[in-house]
Predict the structure of SDR family oxidoreductase.
Amino acid sequence: MSEQRIFITGGASGLGQSIALRYARAGWRVCIADVNDARGAETQKTLASLTPHAHYLRCDVTREEDLGAASEWLASNWGGVDVVVNNAGVAQAGAIEEVSLDDWQWIIDINLLGVVRGCKVFTPLFKRQGHGHFVNVASMAGLLDVPMMSSYNATKAAVVSLSETLQNELADDHIGVSLVCPSFFKTNLTESLRTSSPGLRTAMGKLLERSPITADDIADRIFRAVEQRAFYVLPHSEGRQAWLMKRLLPRGLYASLIRKRTRRMRSYGTQQA
């Protein structure tokens, strides 16, 4: 039985839950954090059937004190933590002139500052231990630039930059970083989606549903990346191809391809609405 320990924000559903189950099956001690107590209790019960050490903590990533309390619980009860997964996130879609600043502040506080708080709070514990590993869940949206998703793209791009920076900053302290950038996959992200466009909501939902890659597939890739101390986790081949095109093609050609694909996606969503 492994004595290794993992802490996962947004761990009661979606990708966070899949990560928790993957590590529980490997015998790790698994602590999930979420703001949905009902889902948290249900997931903890499932985890307890796989590992003798499963715990749920109510934790709002917009509150540094909640993450601080989680760090203290892990240090007091499990003697620390080996992997911290900053996974909690929400979605927002809409034209730049339509998205309110309140929505911008909402998504920044969760998607970006939630990850910042997780890294800020747990780095001192990792340094005291002499080791640790952050898994920061961003998105291919942070590497690409799909229209009508400016707030989501911007927060995920910031997580990319933060993670790249921390990989360099924390290396001498034996703290690893993995950056997860999936494309569309079946999850409950549309539950948190804020948008004034029914067509965008429909299109996103359809893209999530028809993805051949599941949350369990991505969780397995994360497990292996942490074992190998790999940085990039890019599970979708289409996403990897698009990122390669962005890096190699002239900007004008790449941008025209993105706009053409986006028009098709919006048209599909309108037809299905």
Q: What stands out?
A: The longest strand covers residues 29-34.
